[in-house]
Amino acid sequence: MAHEWGIDAKEASFPALVVHALEDGLAIQRALDPDAVPADAVVAATELILRGAYRSSTRQPEG
């Protein structure tokens, strides 16, 4: 998916690590309190991370 968004493998490796950690943390939180964490929280968070990575990769240099 990162390639489809114009993100190369090096740029995708850190967001992938973050998503993996986020998934683990949300799974623990969901196990502790299922009503507090929506079932699609990992999907929504992953989308936010990928959008941010895409925006930062397409941002024009200032100056």
Descriptive report:
The chain has 63 residues and is an all-alpha fold. It has one domain (3-58). The protein has two helices and no strands. Helix 1 (9-32) runs antiparallel to helix 2 (41-58). The longest helix has 24 residues, at 9-32. The termini are far apart. The model has no long low-confidence stretch (mean pLDDT 82).
Topology overview:
Blueprint: H1 9-32, H2 41-58
Q: Short summary of the structure?
A:
This protein is mainly α and 63 residues long. The chain contains 2 helices and no strands.
Radius of gyration: 14 Å
Main beta sheet: strand number and arrangement?
none
* Residue-averaged pLDDT: 82
Number of spatially distinct domains: 1
Form type:
elongated
Uncertain regions spanning at least 5 consecutive residues: none
The sequence of SSEs as H and E is HH
Class of secondary structure makeup: mainly alpha
Helix coverage percent: 55-70%
Strand content of the residues, in percent? under 5%
By DSSP (H or I, 4+ residues per run), the number of helices equals 2
Number of strands: 0
Distance between the termini: 31 Å
